[in-house]
Design brief:
The chain is an alpha+beta fold and 752 residues long. Helices cover 19% and strands 25% of the residues.
């Protein structure tokens, strides 16, 4: 039944209870715009005007915000309205959504686009939860087909302002009144299809033959491609029958399931199956067109780092780009125009995967994020695609990634911000801790007014004076701590930092989080013992030489990987308490890889994430560096350090949950009262020597301490424990990252 004809025939008074029609008069009438996709581009046409090209330069929009999982659909209408304005101001012209949003999104979009000369268009998705697919195995399973059918009908009805959904858990619901259908550029169904599901579907339905639908048909299709064609046909059929309209159609794909050969791919599951839209055709009843959508990132799958044809590809700017080389092949191999549905790099401290030319998955400043995203977009355009959509608009605190997920409480991820997890930091809109800017790592003394003092009125004179002109940088005068949703903040005060010489003045901060564990002796040649176990030591030795190290007994990286990988040597002290051994803090990047086409093996790869970077962390400063860990303020005689919670084994800082006793309990959680901190300064014996991570006799001269120093024993003071206030709801404020402005300028030069 055509709902528009039905409603027009019976009249508004007779349908007061019909879904989606209540109060529609209060919403703006949509502009009259049609869309289609041709061999070269998306095209749009307003009533009475000519078709015009629409090169896509857009952004993906998720459903999450701090303190909420995406299934809670908690974004307010005011937030949607503000974000849509920001997206338009970034000169983006298309938003991609993955699933049904709450009615507030469609209402905000209708109001945003009212009488706008250049409206924001939407590529709308239909999400199918991966667990449902995995449980069914075969995509032809009735349960999966029903999930898709219900989902797509809801989406089509929602964009036409004709849907009412009762309250439910894990999905959006409500009454949808806003007709935004003219702004829907097309539908992109599904997810990055798991290769195991594709394989099982193909095996279980061998011999099914081609699909001959009313709008979409296939030629020489695999069973899974047959299944996809039928789903696309259902989208067109439902919208045509109900609203007498159709739109361009696509399904989500990714390099893992492309139909190209990747002889250098080391992982079997990344080249296990093939899915292509080349086997899909339209019938005479459908004139809006099909397009192929791929999520393409530069650093994964691994063939992008090792396929010689791609690694050696030289773009028109004279630079090698494996990304561009792959895109050229992808476009050439597709019969339908290609859209890059996701691309980007994250502005995270932690890193998950390396790229042969530095476009890594993490480890970038916000400015670098913007510059790299712009370069990727230039390659996307240069490869003659339909365009691309940056992943993503907003940071997503709920996200996880493989090399940090074991450290975290999975039920509490949205309640704090982990800069070690790259997946949380892809956004160009960031969420910074606090209702307003708090600790900015900039040397501003006002930010520390409410901090907790951890010193017990330290002696204003140094314990040991060397009279070499550098005692002021070794004389400790204060130690303070603060906390927010992202970091533990520490500030150390000195007598005089005007002429700080790192070769003559080093500082150690000893942290005790897990009572009953830890080393009772300190590294770096100090020869210091302690009156309690120390889990982490922060060594401040200047730019390029500063780091955080962890007690070997509390090293999650070693616990996870040493027994699995021969490339990490087993040490005799593994699993021993108070061994006197400290480890660098590492994050895994790749397990051992065998490159089949090159007959070579790439060893296990990790990087030292405990290395500390010096800089200014204030977004308002012209010297802003979003990856800064340490800031030295000579004018204030202070050094500030901010430590990401995950770096020091916090599973959930909002509830003081730390990693428990690894060797007794595995990676489980336990509650800690707080963190105790002591400090000491010393003059290194040989600043150029490799730092000594094993405790032992010290040759450095220990010069001062916060805590009691009795001979060679550092005792934590009575005020040394910092007990930060937990939270059930995170506080945060929005901030457009530096990457936003970089992308805005680039998109300003793109054709609409």
């Amino acid at each position: 039944m055509d709902r528009r004809r039905y409603l027009g025939a019976i009249g508004a008074a007779a349908v007061a209870s019909t879904a989606g029609c209540l109060g529609r008069d209060s919403l703006p009438e949509p502009q009259d715009i049609e869309s289609r996709v041709t061999s070269g581009s998306f095209r749009t046409r307003r009533e009475g005007e000519e078709w015009r090209d629409l090169p896509v330069h857009g952004v993906n929009l998720g459903m999450a915000k701090p303190g909420r999982f995406p299934g809670e659909a908690a974004i307010t209408k005011a937030e949607y309205a503000r974000w849509l304005e920001g997206i338009s101001e970034m000169n983006a012209n298309v938003i991609r959504t993955y699933t049904l949003h709450p009615p507030r999104f469609y209402e905000a979009l209708a109001e945003h686009n009212e009488e706008r000369e250049e409206p924001l268009f939407v590529l709308h998705g239909n999400w199918i939860a991966e667990p449902a697919l995995a449980e069914a195995g075969d995509a032809f399973d009735d349960s999966v087909v029903e999930i898709h059918r219900q989902g797509i009908e809801e989406i089509v009805d929602a964009v036409h302002g004709d849907l009412s959904v009762s309250e439910r858990v894990g999905q959006a619901d409500g009454t949808y009144r806003a007709d935004v259908s003219p702004y829907v550029l097309g539908y992109v169904i599904g997810i990055e299809w798991p290769p195991e599901v594709i394989e099982e579907t193909d095996d279980a339905n061998e011999g099914i033959g081609d699909y001959d639908g009313e709008y979409v048909r296939t030629e020489d299709a695999t069973p899974f491609e047959h299944w996809l064609a039928k789903r696309l046909d259902e989208v067109a059929a439902y919208e045509d029958e109900q609203y007498d309209e159709t739109r361009p159609l696509s399904f989500t794909n990714w390099p893992t399931a492309d139909h190209l050969e990747h002889p250098a791919e080391p992982l079997e599951e990344e080249d296990l199956v093939s899915v292509t839209a080349n086997h899909h055709r339209t019938t005479d009843a459908f004139d809006r067109g099909l397009f192929a959508t791929y999520h393409v990132y530069p650093y994964y799958p691994d063939f992008l780092n090792y396929e010689e044809e791609y690694v050696e590809y030289v773009a028109e700017d004279g630079e090698r780009s494996s990304y561009r080389g792959y895109l050229e092949d992808l476009v050439d191999a597709n019969d339908h125009p290609v859209l890059v549905g996701e691309f980007g790099v994250p502005a995270s401290r932690g890193k998950t995967h390396s790229h042969v030319y530095g476009f890594d998955q993490g480890g970038h400043t916000e400015r670098q994020q913007g510059e790299m995203n712009v370069k990727l977009y230039e390659h996307i355009v240069g490869a003659d695609t339909l365009g691309g959509l940056v992943f993503t608009w907003q940071d997503e605190w709920f996200k996880r990634t493989w090399n940090t997920m074991d450290y975290m409480n999975p039920d509490r991820r949205p309640f704090w911000s982990d800069v070690q997890t790259c997946e949380q930091m892809f956004g160009v809109l960031g969420f910074d801790p606090g209702d307003e800017p708090g600790f900015t790592l900039s040397g501003s003394p006002d930010e520390w007014d409410a901090a907790t003092r951890l010193d017990d009125d330290p002696d204003p004179s140094p314990l040991v004076a060397l009279e070499d002109g550098h005692d002021g940088a070794r004389n400790l005068t204060g130690l303070e701590a603060g906390a927010d949703e992202r970091y533990l903040h520490l500030r150390v005060s000195f007598d005089d930092l005007a002429d700080l010489d790192w070769n003559r003045a080093n500082t150690l901060l000893a942290l005790d989080l897990a009572p009953g564990q830890g080393n009772t002796s300190l590294p770096f040649g100090t020869g210091l013992g302690t009156d309690r176990g120390v889990d982490f030591v922060v060594h401040l030795a200047g730019p390029g030489s500063s780091r955080v190290v962890v007690d070997s007994y509390y090293d999650v990286f070693y616990y996870l990987y040493a027994e699995l990988l021969e490339s990490i040597p087993t040490v005799e002290y593994a699993g021993e308490r108070d061994s006197g051994e400290f480890h660098p803090i590492e994050l895994a990047l790749n397990r051992e890889l065998r490159i089949p086409s090159q007959d070579r093996t790439i060893g296990f790869e990790s990087h030292e994430t405990g290395r500390l970077r010096f800089g200014n962390g204030d977004p308002e400063s012209p010297e802003y560096d979003s990856l800064s860990d340490v800031h030295v303020a000579p004018a204030e005689d202070t050094i500030e350090v901010r430590l990401p919670w995950l770096l020091i084994n916090l599973r959930d800082p909002s509830r003081h949950e730390i990693v428990a006793d690894l060797w007794e309990d595995g990676i489980e959680g336990r509650t800690a009262d707080g963190v105790s901190v002591a400090a000491a300064t010393f003059a290194p014996e040989d600043p150029d020597a490799e730092p000594e991570l094993s405790a032992g006799d010290g040759e450095a001269t220990v010069t001062d301490a916060i805590g009691d120093l009795s001979g060679s024993r550092l005792e934590f003071g009575p005020e040394s424990t910092f007990e930060w206030e937990g939270w059930e709801e995170p506080s945060y404020h929005e901030r457009r990252k530096e990457s936003y402005e970089v992308i805005r300028e680039a998109f300003a030069g793109a054709d609409r």
